[in-house]
Structure formats: C-alpha cells, structure tokens
C-alpha cells in the first residue's frame, strides 16, 4: 500500500515537474536549443549590451518568425520561454519607463504565446522563468552554492541583478527541504492510517 501511495505521489511530482530534491526549481536547466533557435539564444545571451546600446528592438524587428515545433521536451520549452521572456521584457523597456513598447512584434509574440500555451504559463517573464529555470553551475561537478552559480540570462544591473535572482533561488532551495518533510509525513501518515 505504501509503495502505491509513493508511486502516486511521484507521478504527481512528475506531472507538475516538481523535484523531491529541489522542489519547484527546474533541475539541470538547458543552456542550448536546436540550431534553428540560435537567433533567440544570441539575443538573450547579449541582452544587457543590446539594451544598453539600444539595439535590441532593431534586431528583434529583423528576427524571423520561428515555429516552436522543434522543441521536443519540457526543458527545451522552459529555456525557450526563458529566452523569449527576457527578450520581451528587454524589448518593452529598452527605452525606459517613458517609452515602453506597447506591442510585441509577431516574430517575438507568436512563438512566445505558443510556447506559453504548451507550458501552461502566461506569455510574460515569470518567477518560474527568471528564478526557477534561470540558473547554471559554473563548475558542473561542484555544489549548488552561490559561489558556483550563475544566471543563464540577465538584465542590465550587473551583480545586483544577478544577486537578486540567485538569492531568490537560494530561498527556494532552502524551502525544498520542507517539501521533503511533507513527502515523508504524507507517506508516514498514509501508512499509519492504513494499518
């Protein structure tokens, strides 16, 4: 009986992409997509420079409309959503609060909307993107600690911006231990009640 409950619980975790180890943090986020999507990754990887030099909007206008059909798994979809979310926010706010863009170009809006639908996320940069799926280890063999962590994408703001996102991620990591306790208690209580 306990095994069935444990399997059901694991199936629920899998269905919602929850990790027993990391909680809601995406395990091992990708940093690369199929070559077809390289234009998205190039823009997102150079976002800070493109915003500061006020070149992002021009490059987005030249971007082809790409279909998300080659994105074959959850982690690829999450990286695409992350990249398009950062590009969208950069596009909107490139000129600051006095001249925010009112409309996203089709080459940005259309794939972002389609990917968002597949993930069940809104087509806007979310906490699930900017914190939970926006990290990588500097040394993949090292521990998940702030000195060994970096952001996949960032905005202008340097270390302050990086710290904002990474500290939020570390809070999530600390909270994941509560998830482990909850799982343990659920299994224990289920077993106890079925004695």
TrEMBL record:
The protein's name: Indoleamine 2,3-dioxygenase 1
Pfam (any one): IDO
Xref: InterPro entries: Indolamine_dOase, Trp/Indoleamine_2_3_dOase-like
Species: Xenoophorus captivus
PANTHER family the UniProt entry points to: INDOLEAMINE 2,3-DIOXYGENASE, INDOLEAMINE 2,3-DIOXYGENASE 1
Top-level lineage group: Eukaryota
UniProt key word Heme: no
Family (UniProt): Belongs to the indoleamine 2,3-dioxygenase family.
């Amino acid at each position: 009986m306990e095994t069935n409950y444990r399997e059901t619980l694991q199936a629920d975790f899998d269905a919602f992409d929850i990790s027993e180890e990391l909680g809601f943090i995406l395990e091992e986020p990708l940093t690369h997509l199929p070559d077809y999507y390289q234009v998205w990754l190039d823009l997102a990887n150079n976002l800070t420079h493109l915003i500061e030099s006020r070149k992002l909007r021009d490059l987005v206008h030249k971007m082809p409309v790409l279909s998300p059909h080659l994105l074959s798994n959850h982690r690829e979809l999450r990286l695409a959503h992350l990249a398009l979310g950062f590009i969208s926010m950069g596009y909107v706010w490139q000129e600051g609060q006095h001249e925010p863009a009112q409309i996203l170009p089709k080459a940005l809006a259309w794939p972002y909307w389609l990917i968002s639908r597949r993930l069940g996320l809104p087509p806007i940069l979310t906490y699930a993107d900017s914190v939970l799926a926006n990290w990588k280890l500097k040394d993949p063999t090292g521990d998940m600690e702030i000195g060994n962590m970096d952001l996949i994408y960032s905005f202008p703001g340097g270390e302050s911006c990086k710290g904002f996102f990474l500290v939020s991620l570390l809070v999530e990591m600390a909270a994941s231990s509560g998830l482990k306790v909850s799982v343990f208690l659920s299994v224990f209580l289920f077993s106890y009640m079925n004695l």
